[in-house]
Design a protein that fits this description.
Blueprint: H1 12-24, E1 34-36, H2 43-62, H3 66-75, E2 79-80, E3 86-93, E4 96-103, E5 112-118, H4 127-151
Antiparallel strand pairs: 1-5, 2-3, 3-4, 4-5
Helix pairs in contact: 2-4, 3-4
């Protein structure tokens, strides 16, 4: 399967998530209520793994390079938004937005991050799909930063 009008292959993970999104979609509108993965059914038990796969890599790569986090994410279509110290919002599917947030560290606290979702996300994706989607977007942001550095 290819992207429309190109020869570029759609990654298998995106094909699967798109099918899951289409099969699960209830047509629910966004609520405007932001939640974390912990608040998703079954999310509390899987939260440490979710954090390790989605937020951990972003914090590790962009720990003190917040401008590069924003630059790399906006190059992928993310929008800077007002959460935490630095945040990027992505429209992953027509009814699914994901916000990646990073807080600066200081002498007392290390750099931290989180991911927020509209509370309607479970009307479109399972907790497993949310984990995969969050991980893959994080990986894309990181890859974008590396490709940007190699061009300099």
């Amino acid at each position: 399967m290819r992207y429309a009008g190109t020869q570029e292959e759609i990654p298998p993970w995106l094909q699967i998530l798109t099918l899951h999104y289409l099969v699960t979609a209830k047509g629910t509108g966004e609520t405007g209520v932001q939640i974390t993965y912990k608040q998703i059914e079954g999310g509390l038990a899987y939260y440490p793994v979710f954090q390790k796969r989605s937020v951990g890599p972003l914090v590790k790569v962009f720990g003190d390079d917040f401008r590069n986090f924003i630059k790399s994410g906006t190059a992928l279509g993310g929008r800077e938004t007002a959460f935490g110290d630095y945040a990027l919002q992505f429209r992953a599917f027509p009814k699914v937005e994901i916000i990646f947030i990073i807080w600066k560290g200081d002498d007392e606290f290390p750099v931290e991050g989180n991911v927020m979702f509209d509370s309607s996300i479970t009307d479109y994706l399972s907790s497993e799909d949310i984990t995969i989607l969050s991980n893959m977007i994080a990986v894309m942001i990181i890859k974008s930063s590396y490709s940007d550095k190699t061009r300099q």
